[in-house]
Amino acid sequence: MSLLKVERLDVRHGLLQAVRAVDLELQEGETLALVGANGAGKTTLLRAIAGAHRPAAGRVLLDGADVTTAPAYRRVRLGISLVPEGRRLFPGLTVEENLLVGGRSGRKGPWNLDAVYGLFPALRELTRRRARVISGGEQQMCAIGRALMANPRLLLLDEVSLGLAPVVVQALYETIASVGRQGTTVVLVEQDVARALGTATRVACMLEGRIVLERDAAAVSRDQIVDAYFGLRRGAAA
Hints:
Blueprint: E1 4-13, E2 16-26, E3 31-35, H1 42-50, E4 57-62, E5 65-66, H2 72-78, E6 80-83, H3 95-104, H4 113-119, H5 121-124, H6 136-148, E7 154-158, H7 166-181, E8 185-189, H8 193-199, E9 202-207, E10 210-216, H9 222-229, H10 233-236
Parallel strand pairs: 3-8, 3-9, 6-7, 7-8
Antiparallel strand pairs: 1-2, 1-4, 4-5, 9-10
Helix pairs in contact: 3-6
């Protein structure tokens, strides 16, 4: 049985339909890179899976159980964690307080403060710093650590590299790969196609709210992804 199954999902922002009849299936332990241009529907799809945006139609299933109408906090308890674009930390709380918030509603499992500090040693030196005064890269580490504190089975990462220096991005991606190797299923929204292909086991490309290409990362070329990304006939038919 699939860990995650999305069936014919439609999601709207008022009159705008952002996600259109999306079908998606993920097995436990997979890492899916979700790519596409700005406005393609990637963030909206992640938010719908996490319970932050109610779909207009279709279903979201976790381990075969329908969670389409379950609130976000309930999905966290079931094993879905979202790292949103922009991190969304509590700026007035310390790094450690932000991490502890992540563990309050989650599942029991191996991720705790010591495990997160082992994954991100830099955070151990920042435990008493307010989130608003640390660097962007440190904030992203804290946001990922907060999500891991819930001991997710499915980790949704939205644009984790946005606005960060290349050396910081490289370190974050090494961490994401490590989390995946430990068995966590990951969906990664990323604009950098080359980096996405180097991390993921599968890749899906969205265009105008639809998934127009989905393949094993090792079996798809950069040209095929670029064609699908821009809606060229060759990519759309792939």
